[in-house]
Amino acid sequence: MSGSALIDLSPLETRVLGVLVEKQLTTPDYYPLTLNALVAGCNQKSSRSPVMQVSEAEVQTALDALKRRTLVIDSYGASGRVMRYAHNLPKVLDVGQQITALLAVLMLRGPQTPGELRTGSERMYGFADISSVEAFLEEMATRPAGALVAKLPRQPGSREHRWAQLLGGPPPVQPDQAPAEKEPATPNEVVALKANLEELRGEVAQLRALVEQLRQELDLKRTQT
C-alpha cells in the first residue's frame, strides 16, 4: 500500500494510530494495547492537539477501519485472554523508526516545527540535532510513494516553518497564517480611482445642495402657515 492511499484517515483514526505508535515506543511493557488503554490514550489531555473525548464504541469503529487498511492488527499479548491491538505502520509505509516517531508526534500534536518535533519525539527516538529532523522531514515530503508530510507557510514572528502530516488529508488553512501582500496599483488603476473619487465628490455635492433646497422650502412653508 502506498502513502497516497492513506490520505483519508479520519481525525479519530489518526489519533488511534498515533497512540499505538507512541505507546509502543515509550511504554513497550504495556503494548499491545487493550481497548480501555487506547481510549485513555486518545482522551489524554497532555501532548494532544486537539484534546478529544471519545467513547469505546467510537475507538472500536476507528480500529475496525484501520484493520481494513492493515494498519492495525489484533493481538492477545502475553496473557492470551484480553484482546489487544498493535499498529502495522512501519511495514505498510516501509519506513524506519525515525519517520515512525515523527509521524506519531504530528498525528498526536498537530503541526510542529522541527525543534518541537525533536523535543516531542525524545522518548520515541533520539535525533542528534534539528538538522537531522529536517533531513527526515524533507525525505518524507519528497517520498516517491507519496508525501507523508507538508511544510506549512511560516507564521508571523516565527523563525521556523511548521510541518503537518498528510495521513489525514491536506492540512487545514491556518487562520493565523500571514496574509499575502497586495500588489501596488498600476498607473492606469490610480487614474481610474481618482476619477471615481471625483465623481463621488460631485454626487455628494449635488445631494447636499438638494438637501439644502428641501430645507429652505420646508422653512418657507412653516412661515406661511
Structural commentary:
There is one protein chain. The chain is mostly helical. It folds into 2 domains: 3-165, Arc Repressor Mutant, subunit A (Orthogonal Bundle); 185-225. The chain is 50% helix and 7% strand. The chain contains 8 helices and 5 strands, in the order αβααββααααββα. The strands form 2 sheets. Strands 1-3-2 form a 3-stranded antiparallel sheet. The chain is elongated, with a radius of gyration of 30 Å.
Helix content: 40-55%
CATH domain topology of the largest domain: Arc Repressor Mutant, subunit A
* Strand and helix order: HEHHEEHHHHEEH
Mean pLDDT: 87
**Major beta sheet, specifics?**
3 strands, antiparallel
Q: Could you state the oligomeric state of the chains shown?
A: single chain
The CATH superfamily of the largest domain turns out to be Winged helix-like DNA-binding domain superfamily/Winged helix DNA-binding domain
| Poorly predicted residue ranges | 1-5, 176-181
Could you say which overall geometry the principal axes of the C-alpha atoms support? Answer: elongated
